[in-house]
Structures are given as C-alpha cells and as structure tokens.
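I hope you will forgive my troubling you with a question about protein structure. The record follows directly beneath this note:
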Amino acid sequence: MGALVAGMLMFSGCGKEGPAGPAGTDGTNGNANVRGNTFTISTWTWNTSALYLQGNIADADVTPDINNYGAVLVYAYIPSAAVWEALPFSTPTTSASVTQHFECLHSTGNVWVDISNSDGSTPSGPPADYKVVCIASSLIKANPNVDLKNYSQVKAAFHLNN
C-alpha cells in the first residue's frame, strides 16, 4: 500500500509544464528511402570466356527490398568530361573502330560493373569511381519526372549530399 501511495505522489507532481526551451537547429535535408555512396573500384577481373572486365562493389544499401522492388542506379565518373554518366552506356575509344560498353548488375549487397570492347580486346583504363544510388520503389513512383539517367536531377530530387 505504501508503494501505491508513493507512486501516486511521485506522478501527481508532474502536471505543471515549464517554459519552452530554445529552438533547435534544422537538420540536414535528406531522405531515409534513398541512399547514395561513392565507391572506388581498384581491382578488376578479366573474364576470358565472355571477354569483359568486371569490378565488384559491396554495398549494404542494396537490400532485398531495393534489389527486388526499388532502383539501383550506377554512375561512372568520366574525368575528361567531369560528369557522372549513368550505366549502361557505350562510348568510342581512342580507336575509332572500337566501342567500349559499360553495364552493371546487382544483387542483395553487391553491384558489379562490366566493361567490354566491341572487338573483344581488353578495355584499358576503366573509370575508378562509381556512385551507387538506391531508391525505394515508392519514391520512384512518386517522382515520375526525374530523369534517372541524369545524376544532377537525381541528386536534387532526392536530396543527396554527395
């Protein structure tokens, strides 16, 4: 009984509210349903049967839900143009007769970048820096006018910091 009375007395004194505290600072704009990170691929493996270079990015943001229902966007940094180019894309090499193809695949936790030359030769000097942007399906549907191949639009629409 004493514990009941003590509990009632303890909570009866909590009825009066004090003055409001100072306003807090605004947080960083962002979106919990979009994740973007920059990765450097330093190790490439030559696939001798399919004739392409492959680099792997381990990315925990490629969750089962994102992998199965959302979007995994990959952009390669092209230093000569100072631009992030969306994969897949093709570009001529220094040899006018050879085209270099950039593609990507993903599964939960991983993104693979594949680079091949149209003549089957080994691609030289692949870009090292890649951005991987993972977007929940609900945001893709809510933003139908965003050009997902344009990193600047993606960055602005989804409030990415990098």
In short: The radius of gyration is 25 Å. Residues 54 and 114 are 5 Å apart (CA to CA).
